Amino acid sequence: METTFGTALKKTLHKADTRGQADHGWLKTRLTFSFSGYYDSKRVHFGVLRVLNDDQIAGGRGFGMHPHDNMEIITIPTEGVVEHRDNQGNHGIITKGEVQVMSAGTGVYHSEFNHLSDQTLKLFQIWVFPNKGNVKPRYDQMKFDVEAQHNNFQLLVTPIEANIPNTLGIHQDAYFSMGKFEAGKEFTYKINREGNGLYILVVNGSVSTAGEELSLRDGLGLEGISAINFKTENGVELLLMEVPMELE
């Protein structure tokens, strides 16, 4: 049973086929929250989680130099290779098993391209509102030992002030984790910061949690929990985004 901090459990369910979508030829994307030409007044953000895009980018194509400010941007490739460049002099090659973070802060220009000409790039593009404005722009990437995700939640992204080893820091009290669980497993996730909400994305497989049956690319936002139990009959890969619910 999931426990609470004294507030009623609140659920926000986003089934995969209800997401926004766009097809630009070279870019095919599914949008959990309002973005660019897709707008739904009921799907603007989940707490400080502002963007969750599920992108497929054709070989050799990508997003040319463009500006951002005051946003924490996380990129998680699931297939293929990302090439990053920005006006701060950073150049990165990011593959599956790696995660990229960028604090746009006072302002940054960057490009994100499919590094390979003969393979589709698939990635999650995630934006989080920061808890500090106008910070110095910064860039980082890290390769993770994905074996640590076997029947376990591996921390990927954490608050920069916490200085947690072997994770990527962002300017927000947020915790991102990924885990891959075998068939027939029951497991629990515990909230790191009281009051945070949890957004669950099924990357692959299926899982039962909070009275919901979730399948490929389904999303579920939970508020008012301190821990949440999961059960998978056939195996599942999950991306968990634990975020503050209050916009500062």
UniProtKB/TrEMBL annotation:
Which range is the signal sequence, renumbered to this chain? none
The Quercetin 2,3-dioxygenase C-terminal cupin domain is annotated at 166-243
Please give one Pfam family short name. Answer: Pirin_C_2
On the tree of life, the source organism's domain of life is Bacteria
- Domain Pirin N-terminal positions: 18-128
Looking up SUPFAM superfamilies in the UniProt record yields: RmlC-like cupins
Q: Which InterPro entries does this one have?
A: Pirin (IPR012093), Pirin_N_dom (IPR003829), Quercetinase_C (IPR041602), RmlC-like_jellyroll (IPR014710), RmlC_Cupin_sf (IPR011051)
Q: Family, per the entry? A: Belongs to the pirin family.
Protein name per UniProt: Pirin family protein
